[in-house]
């Protein structure tokens, strides 16, 4: 007997659950790319992307995943031989840094480990020491999907302003956009990168680079930008063909239209509040289980936990055993530990993650938690019972301020 038959649930931190409305919008014959509906859809699509990012700036779109958006952001703003400062809070910060290195950019990495948010004072010290202003950009990951820590992007803006340092502030919001509150303009990010397959609920395949006029001035002063990554024609297209530097990803555009319609209808503030509330339910369950056994949340302080992804540790081999059990017995796939190797566990199998980004609601989260609690029981992993009840309680409690 298996209890897994029925609708499967991919509860990993990207790709995320796709709404039926997105899938239906994509299920169509090939549309014309030279005239007609698709072309007319673009101005509103761009406006709605900026609504989600809280910016009046510009957006360039790419047929790419998040790695492509990383490269695009750097290709438009930093020359080989110039330097960037990376405040790394997990695997993805290091990944963006490796991308920069491969592009011939000098990298100065502030490694914050994998359990702490960016320390603005460390960034301040590094920038203050940069007397020649060789650092052209500060790179920070808003939510590092491996550690599930969330960092304060506005605090980095404040540091740059206080020092009068001209480096651009670049944020990776691939995991956080349309999940955790992010305010590109008022928080002062000059460049922000994201992808389609997390909070935007569309299959992997679209990368986005948002940028303001300051960043665009840097772009215009570049001696050369690789033609394909150049954000200028994509953000200011004279014809439809230029939005994507060639043939458009037609079906992704339709899927994105459907997802933005959903976000617009709910309202971005309500989308953030839903994620925050569901996250509190998850934390309540995990904190309960942890009181009677080995389970710990990777980020101890609630104030620094993402609302889109939660990394937890059970210790090897229990994390992997739990994931295997929930998938096989219940049709729920949990995320692997990423970048979480330990001396006696090089693959990080003691860790697992929940993705709770985008198209998720209370019954899915309570179902996910119920399945995990069943797994803890079935596998005889010590835990305090009552996690699901604690989550139910948290979901109906008034939200704390902030
Ligand atoms: C998923 C993710 C990436 C990588 O995106 P891909 O689409 O897999 O290339 C980068 N940064 C963060 C924070 C992510 O969550």
TrEMBL record:
Cofactor: pyridoxal 5'-phosphate
Domain of life where this protein originates: Bacteria
Source organism of the structure: Citreimonas salinaria
GO biological process, one term: glycine biosynthetic process, by transamination of glyoxylate
Family to which this protein belongs: Belongs to the class-V pyridoxal-phosphate-dependent aminotransferase family.
InterPro entries: Aminotrans_V_dom, PyrdxlP-dep_Trfase, PyrdxlP-dep_Trfase_major, PyrdxlP-dep_Trfase_small, SP_NH2Trfase/AEP_transaminase
Residues binding substrate, per UniProt: 353
Chain ranges of the Aminotransferase class V domain: 73-280
Molecular function in Gene Ontology: alanine-glyoxylate transaminase activity; L-serine-pyruvate transaminase activity
Record keywords, A-Z: Pyridoxal phosphate, Pyruvate
SUPFAM superfamilies, per the entry: PLP-dependent transferases
Modified-residue entries (N6-(pyridoxal phosphate)lysine), positions: 198
Protein name listed in UniProt: Alanine-glyoxylate transaminase / serine-glyoxylate transaminase / serine-pyruvate transaminase
